[in-house]
Amino acid sequence: MNLHLLRSFLTVVETQSYSRAAQALFVSQSAVTKAVRELEHQLDLPLLERDADGKSLRGIALTEHGRAVFEHARAIFALARAASEDVRDRVELRQGHLRLGASTTVAAYWLPDMLAEFSRRHPALQVGLIVGNTDEISRELVDCRIDLGYVEGEVSDARIAATLWRTEPLRLVAAAGAAARMSAATLAQATWLLREPGSGTRQAAQAWLQAQALTPARVIEIGSNEAIARAVAAGAGLALLPDTVVADLLAMGRLRTVAPPGQARAASRPLYRLELRNRPRAPALRAFLALDTQPRRRKPD
């Protein structure tokens, strides 16, 4: 069905006049008359009652078929108006959703300030944040369940564009009563607390251990950096954790920093911002990225 012809027919019925319809559509009256005739021809149905000479009756009377087509036309163009208004509201950030995904440390320490500021600037937008490890956030992005991801580990999926967001220091920590410096042998004999496979913190810790040629005697896997930090404070072993995670416990004297052996470098890990390649940025996402030029972390209380 030709929507141009349908709009002409709808306007004629709504205005009850070919001339008024022509004025509303900014075309000639003959063009409107021709459009209505062409629609009837295409549908093979009479839409308007006409006299014996084929002229439309005064008042634009509809046939039974015409009433049905008119109701369909009114619904179609009402939906088109609603769609146009919805799109305009989204472009002007008067409605819409922003769906983010982040690994646990980024979600807890780096994003809260940005989310709060974004909500203040755009109160009409709904914001959602999914928290998971690097592999989980990558899958959410590929499945289009989130618009943007922030992770702590490297991503090899060719469908994802990973941008280095910042570099975060890691700190080797032990319980408060531990020695301030440990030999490589002591570190190797200790129990190490590590995140689960797929975590960026796990990747960074394993890379650091390999660089020091250290193979821990025992490993305990825990799926939360905060839980690892508290387990270390309770004397469960050693861990390599982000500064942001251990800052509070260090300040309270429940953890202590352990100096790496010899000339070992201090550890760090990259944080990445993830987007799906070739996916256009929606207005809400562009507005959020405008705040993302200087990422800030939550300051410890």
UniProtKB/TrEMBL annotation:
<dbReference type="InterPro" id="IPR036390">
    <property type="entry name" value="WH_DNA-bd_sf"/>
</dbReference>
<feature type="domain" description="HTH lysR-type">
    <location>
        <begin position="1"/>
        <end position="63"/>
    </location>
</feature>
<dbReference type="GO" id="GO:0000976">
    <property type="term" value="F:transcription cis-regulatory region binding"/>
</dbReference>
<keyword id="KW-0805">Transcription regulation</keyword>
<protein>
    <submittedName>
        <fullName>LysR family transcriptional regulator</fullName>
    </submittedName>
</protein>
<dbReference type="Pfam" id="PF00126">
    <property type="entry name" value="HTH_1"/>
</dbReference>
<dbReference type="Pfam" id="PF03466">
    <property type="entry name" value="LysR_substrate"/>
</dbReference>
<keyword id="KW-0804">Transcription</keyword>
<dbReference type="InterPro" id="IPR005119">
    <property type="entry name" value="LysR_subst-bd"/>
</dbReference>
<keyword id="KW-0238">DNA-binding</keyword>
<dbReference type="InterPro" id="IPR000847">
    <property type="entry name" value="LysR_HTH_N"/>
</dbReference>
<comment type="similarity">
    <text>Belongs to the LysR transcriptional regulatory family.</text>
</comment>
<dbReference type="InterPro" id="IPR036388">
    <property type="entry name" value="WH-like_DNA-bd_sf"/>
</dbReference>
<dbReference type="GO" id="GO:0003700">
    <property type="term" value="F:DNA-binding transcription factor activity"/>
</dbReference>
